[in-house]
Amino acid sequence: MLLRLFPAGIGCLFAVILFGVAGTVFWIWALIDCATKEPNEWSGKVGWILIILLTHFLGALLYVLIRRPERLRQVGR
User: Under DSSP, is residue 5 helix (H, G, I), strand (E, B) or coil?
Assistant: First the structure.
């Protein structure tokens, strides 16, 4: 019985694992980008790092969509 159910759910399981790994890689990239390229304004840098750390994918997405373009315009890196 279990063998009949497993193959049907393998695609869904693969998709969940794939999205989970991709989200974690994106989160780590955003965290490293923020930690290494944000200007040394203590409150802004630490604030964004905390947002990214505590909200995982959502925080990384907010950082990339809101703060990163602004930083690129201001600082250029």
Answer: helix
d(CA 42, CA 2) in angstroms, rounded, equals 55
**Cβ(57)–Cβ(68) below 8 Å:** no
- Read off the pLDDT of residues 5-24 as tens digits, 9 standing for 90 and up: 556 567 777 878 889 999 99
Q: What is the CA radius of gyration of the chain?
A: 18
Residue 2 binned pLDDT confidence (cut-offs 50, 70, 90): very low
Which residues lie closer than 8 Å to 53 by C-beta, 6 or more apart? 31, 59
Distance spanning both ends of the chain, measured CA to CA: 56
CA distances from 45 to 3, 8, 42, 52, 62 (A): 51, 46, 5, 11, 14
- Enter the tokens of residue 3: 């063998």
